[in-house]
Every structure is written in structure tokens, then in C-alpha cells.
Amino acid sequence: MSKSLPSRSENYSEWYNELVKRADLAENSAVRGCMIIKPYGYSIWEKMQRALDDMFKETGHTNAYFPLFIPKSFLSKEASHVEGFAKECAVVTHYRLKNDPNGGGVIVDPDAKLEEELIVRPTSETVIWSTYKNWIQSYRDLPLLINQWANVVRWEMRTRLFLRTAEFLWQEGHTAHATKQEAIEETEQMLEVYADFAENFMAMPVVKGIKTANERFAGADETYCIEALMQDGKALQAGTSHFLGQNFAKAFDVKFLSKENQLDYVWGTSWGVSTRLMGALIMAHSDDQGLVLPPKLAPIQVVIVPIYKGEDQLNAIKEKVNPLVKSLRKQGVSVKFDVSENQSPGFKFAEYELKGVPIRLAIGNRDMENGTIELARRDTREKTSMAFEGIEQVVVDTLTDIQEKIYAKALAFRTENTHVVNTWDEFNAKLDAGGFVSAHWDGTSETEDKIKDLTKATIRCIPLDAKEEAGQCILTGNPSNKRVMFARAY
Amino acid sequence: MSKSLPSRSENYSEWYNELVKRADLAENSAVRGCMIIKPYGYSIWEKMQRALDDMFKETGHTNAYFPLFIPKSFLSKEASHVEGFAKECAVVTHYRLKNDPNGGGVIVDPDAKLEEELIVRPTSETVIWSTYKNWIQSYRDLPLLINQWANVVRWEMRTRLFLRTAEFLWQEGHTAHATKQEAIEETEQMLEVYADFAENFMAMPVVKGIKTANERFAGADETYCIEALMQDGKALQAGTSHFLGQNFAKAFDVKFLSKENQLDYVWGTSWGVSTRLMGALIMAHSDDQGLVLPPKLAPIQVVIVPIYKGEDQLNAIKEKVNPLVKSLRKQGVSVKFDVSENQSPGFKFAEYELKGVPIRLAIGNRDMENGTIELARRDTREKTSMAFEGIEQVVVDTLTDIQEKIYAKALAFRTENTHVVNTWDEFNAKLDAGGFVSAHWDGTSETEDKIKDLTKATIRCIPLDAKEEAGQCILTGNPSNKRVMFARAY
């Protein structure tokens, strides 16, 4: 607490790592690449979950739960899927430990080898589609609209808290449809849900788009995504929604009898967001003093700190503040009235600033005499002395205002850092400056790979709102009819 | 749907299995012992989670998340703990698959062997206490009151949906305290929370007690439990709360500096309930027609089925019923107005009966003429024609009444099936008849084992409210000063 954070301009990466630890969001565990999500971090994730879950249910989805383990043979059934995930799988091979007869402590029991190895799910398409085969016979069983909240494991070699971890928490929607059109609509609907959540809860503007073939989900016909811009000018993929075509239906032989009495393969989608969103949330808004949280996702929206000498002053403040606390809570505002005595007001101020509490109210003896209270906004760090009378409405309005302002700020940042370029030199200059770079590309994977090799930038997406526009590929000069969005990315 | 369930008296076990499948609660997956929790089953589990989570938070706990994987060496640090769990561990040994160069498809890559094997958590004491070591330095860091919602894996050889599965969902609370007394109070408080939940949400009476040394959690000094009685006369352990003493603090060297500036080991507790509660809920109340759900946990509390011929009649019914639906929902009642046209009212009646919807309202043409509506209670299967006017309040009151009545019914069943016995013959006769058998026991593990071998009955618990009473052990005749509760159990 005494040492201040590294600044963003000094060392952005170090700033992020330190902030995640000091704000009690997460830390590394003894297991390589697996994180511990600490209570404060988890309470933000819970708010995200609740909001997303409500949105999924409003769009007709229900939750279910499928096994953690996937038989190795299942993973192999969809060719590009296994290609995409085989390199980073945690594999269970045995089901028992025993005492080493040679005194080597507890060892894996060689007699307890599984007949078929099990993969800890990296994603659940295979185990879910193998189940859907039994659940779907006719068009009457469709659409099937299911979501799962779960942990998944991808054995990443380089990990970073929230952004890339071997185990992470996520939700994965898996839907089945009678027609291609309906499946595409579902894919697009869920992209809209994600964009809505990112913008209206996380206060984080996103570009909606389609991935190139190179960046597509292993087993999808089309991957839609939302891409956000972080304060260091790098892009972050915040959510994906996949149109799976009939790929998994074919791999697992899932057919249905249509209204017209025809047997056909089912159409599928899958879509997910993960604890990676925590990383995005942190990097989108926070500053050198600590977290900045949008009020809609802040576990504590308002903290009230009394400044007093002696029991009598504290009691007088309590008497005045308790009704305010009660009535704010009645309105659904989450308030902490911090009367703890071990820490000084200054210490508390720094602590709640670090933790991103949107509004801090402070009230001392002079305020009591004058009928005032001090309101500090976390986003702008402005402090204002105000009349205590009427403060409740000010707090409610300020929460709304903060939610809007931090979105507006992030949007202005993105606008400033989105560059339209037409030459290779400009392209490189803008990539080095940071941000999204909108440029023409000739549509080949070969060129995409070459650009990546040369610049470390990837095509984040082909924006859904990209206009038809004749141009020349930034690298090859070959014709292009649309700009795509490049960036260096997390 | 057309075939009726096996009856409980005919084949209780088959009745349970069929009910779980037909009511869309769960099914077996392709992975041995791992279940799929289907949407309807999961929606009941979600209601349980929400209620429990609220209770945990009201008692000062916060949620966090710890890794799925536990290094083998961690599990071994607490001697009795590893003894208890080593025999049923899923072990991860590799982190990659690859294509077999000899054409054998996808195989485990022998070059990707982990240096140390990882265990899929069977419970998280070890990984959590290894973390607490870093979180706890002084009495100021205590108590630490953390809960986790997670999946765990215990490689059971004989599995049954919900009751015993290789993977299950649960919550596990892990708390750390400065004093023994405080840790014991926490252990007891959480037992009370579980008992409160079982009785007031699940409508399932429970006996609160302490486990004998034989049945204690591996690593605990004392295990508290709640035990419920199922309709076939078998007991089911529904939740446990463990006083861990300083065992895990010692295993992971977790010390704190007390107010008196003394360095001492921390005191711990852990407590959990799992998806096993779903099995308990099903078996506690359901009948030969299907599920009977307590209104507080029913995903659909009221279903309204229209009985009509032609569009006009349906429209008239809709016009009358829609305001009722709206106003019930406003009161927080979850209502389904089933206007689907593919199925007959009779089919719908059977379906909602199978799924345990507490109240069914049916309204037809004659009701429309007479200003009536038919109300059917799932618990008693009584049908009553009532005035439509005022039905809203009747529904609300009936939901409360059903919640109370099914608890009362389960309590009466348990009272009838709890037997106090004093001789070995009586003991055996009552065990065969089914139910709890209250008897004297000499307090030795040896006698307990012998009784288990002879009768298959175990000591479910030493009830917390057991009175001091001189007596003789049912088997050995040795002196005893308290009765304990025996039963055959799930």
C-alpha cells in the first residue's frame, strides 16, 4: 500500500501486473499458469456473470452442465478442432495414487491406467454434440438453446493473470438449429449481446466484426468477434460467436427430421466470453492510482469514510450517515460505510482509490457543523464539497454519469487511436504509435501471415460495418474491396 | 412419457433412476461416472445455489476461485488427507496430444510429460491452505471467510446420478481463525445454515450431529453433519462442516502473530454441500407420478393450461389469464402459461406432474362461462374448482401451504421411522424395516466396524441433541452414556 503503482507510461505491463495483485483481483498459484481469483476480483466476475446470465435467459437460453472430461476419441472426431486444441491439452491418464513400495512417497498407481485417456475440456463442442445426438430427433426438438458456466483448461506456455491462463472460467453457449439461416441469426444475436454487455456494463466500446480464416475457431465456418482497444494501443479480443455450420453435427452424426419429413444434419453455433474480460475491464479504464470500475460492475459503488476524533464525533456522524446508507441501499446502490478504526482516513482513501470504488464520500467535524459532505469521483478524481441535504440523489445521478463518462472517454481514446492508412510506411508508423489501423488487404492468408511476420500485427476483424471501397492491399498492392482492422493484440 | 414410472414399492432404485431421466434432471455421459445435468435439473440446482449463496454472504463469507489442479506433493502434505483421497484421484500426467507418426491417430505426446503429476481436485483444502500461508500474517488478517463454487472429481467405482458421481458440483467453504473457539463456532454456524436450508428451502427435516472418528473427513478433528431420511428408509448425508483444528495450518506452515505478539498456527474449518442435494430433494418428496418440488426451489411454481377448441376460445382465455400471469409474476411467482399447440391438455398435465410443478391451474370453456378455474396441487393431487376472482391470493397462499405441508409430511415420515431400540434383535428388525435406529454404542471403532459388517448399517451421527443416558452397547453390552443414530445409508 505504501509503495505506489508503476505508472502506465513507465511500464504498462508492470503496471497491469502490479495492479491486479495490489487491488486483490488475482494472483498466480503454485500450479504453473493457473490463477487464484481473489475475493475482490471474484466479486466483479460475479457481477459480470449475473448480468450476462440475465441477458442469455432473456434471449431464451437455459443453463446446463456437461462433463469436465472428454474422451480423447471425441476430440479427434472433428478434424480441424483436434488440430486446434491437441497442442495444449491437459491429459488424465490414471485414476489412483498409491504409496511407493520402495519408499518414494505417494506415486501414481501404474495399475490404475485408464483404457482411454481423458482430456480436460478446452471447450465443450465435442462432448455436447455427442449428447445432442440423443436429444435431437425432429424439428420439434429445435432450436436447442443451452449455455454452460464452467472452467476450461488450455495448456498455454506463456500466461498472464486473466489475459491468458491455463485454467480459466467462462461461459460457453451451444445451440442447435433446423436451418442455416436461423443458426446465423443466433450467432449474430449473441455477438450483439456481447457488444451490448461490453458497452453498457463494462463501458468499453467494441468493434464488431468477422475473423479471417486464419483466426477462425477450430471447427467453425465463421467466427464473429468483438474487439476492444486497451490504453497501451493494443487490441484485445473480448468475445467470440461461432457459426459452426453442420461441422459438429456431421462429426457426431446429429440429424433431425424436418417438417417436410426430410432427414438433415443440424446447424450449430457456439459462443463464449471468459475471465479474460476482467483483464479487458482493468486495462480499459484504470489509471496510475489504481482501478477505475464502471458503477454497474463495481462490487462497492459508494464508500463513506468518516473523519473524526473520539467516540462522540463518530457517533454523531453515524447517526447522520446511517439513514443515508439505508436509503441508498433501498435504491439498490451498494454502499460501504467504513467505520473501521485500525486505519487512517488517508489510508482508506488510497485503498478505495486502488480498488476503483466509483464514489467516495467523506464527512468530518466541519462538515457536520456546516451540513456538508465531500464527494470524490474515482474517474475524474474531482472532489466537491456539497450540501448533505439532497446528497442521495446526487450520488445516484453521479453513478449514472460516471458510467457514461468512462464509456465516452474510452470511445474518444479509441477514435483518436483508429487510423485509416493507405501506404506501407504509414501502416508501420501507425502500428508503432499504437491503436487500430484500418487498411486494405488482398484477402489471402499468405499476405496476412507475411504482414504478421513483418509487423507482429494481426487482422483483428473485418468490421461488420466496413463499407465496400475499392483499394489496394497495403503489402502486395493487389486489389481489395474492403478495409480490415489491424492491430497488435493481447 | 407414455410409459408410467416404476412404482416406489415395486423397485425404489429403478423408480429413482427413471424419474431422474424422465423428468429431464440428469443423465449419464459417455465418460464413466460423469453426469450431464440437463436444463430442468440445472435450473433447480441454480435455485439452490442462489439461496445458499445468499446465506453464505449474510454470514460474512465471500466467494473466490482456486485452481482445478493440485500438485501431487500438496495432497501428500496432510497425512490422513492423502490417505483419504489417494485411492480415487484423476491424475493429469501430460499436457499435449500429437499425431501418431505410425498412423495410430491422435496419441498422448510422450515428450509432454509433466515434471510433477497434477491431481484434479477432490476437495481444495491443500491448494487453499498453501495460499492462505501468503495471505495470513497477523490476527488482523483473520478471520478469513471464503467460499468457492466449483466442480470436483473423485473417481468412484459405483456411481448413481446425483448421489455418487465421479465429477460433481459443489461449494466448499474454507475459513481461517485466530482461536479454536471461533473456528468451532464457525463450524457449528455453517451446520446451522445447512440445516436451515434443508428444512426451509428443501422442506427436508434433518438430524444435526457429529460423525464418529471412522466417518470423519480425512484431515478433520471433528466432522459435523446433517442427515436426512429418504422414503425407502435409507439415510442420506446432506452436508458436512469440518473443524480442521490446526491440521492444515501445520501441514502448510500457516502461522499468525496474535494480538499478544505470539506466533501460533491458524485454526481452520471447511464445509460443503453438493449436487448430491438434488438426489436428496428428489427422494425426500417425490411419488409414483413423478417429482414433488418444494415451491421455494421449483423453477416453475405455477403452470396454467388452457383447455379450448379453436382460436376464439383460446383468445378469450388468453385475455382473461394474461393479467393473472402478469400480476403473479409481479409478486415474484414464476408462472408458465402453456399455450403450446402440439400437445393435448392431458399430455401437459402428465408432463407437469412428472416435473413436480407445485400448482397447476386449468381453465376451459365452462370455467369461462362460470367464472371458475381449476386448481390442482402437486403434493396432495387434489383438484378444486374455484372462483377465478381472487385466485391470485389463493395461489400465493397455496404455495406457502405446500411448502409447509411437504415438510410436515416428511417430518411425520421420519418420526414414524425413527426407532429407539435396546436389544440386538430389535436393532436388526428395525434396520430391516428401514429408518433411523437410535441405540447405545460403546464408543469404539472396532464395535462400529463389526456392526457395519453384520448389518450394513453405519452410525450416521451422534445427534447434537442426544441426552446423557446410561445404557449398554447394542452389540457388546459395554457401558454407553449416549444413544447414537444408526441407519443403512446412501
From TrEMBL, chains A, B:
Keyword Aminoacyl-tRNA synthetase applies: yes
Pfam families: HGTP_anticodon (PF03129), ProRS-C_1 (PF09180), tRNA-synt_2b (PF00587)
Class of enzymatic activity (EC top level): ligase
CDD domains: ProRS_anticodon_zinc, ProRS_core_arch_euk
InterPro entries tied to this protein: aa-tRNA-synt_IIb, aa-tRNA-synth_II, aa-tRNA-synth_II/BPL/LPL, Anticodon-bd, Anticodon-bd_dom_sf, Pro-tRNA-ligase_IIa_arc-type, Pro-tRNA_ligase_II_C, Pro-tRNA_synth_II
EC number per UniProt: 6.1.1.15
Record localization: Cytoplasm
SMART domains (alphabetical): ProRS-C_1
Function of the molecule: Catalyzes the attachment of proline to tRNA(Pro) in a two-step reaction: proline is first activated by ATP to form Pro-AMP and then transferred to the acceptor end of tRNA(Pro).
Similarity comment: family membership: Belongs to the class-II aminoacyl-tRNA synthetase family. ProS type 3 subfamily.
Description of how the protein assembles with itself and partners: Homodimer.
Protein name: Proline--tRNA ligase
Provenance organism: Aquirufa avitistagni
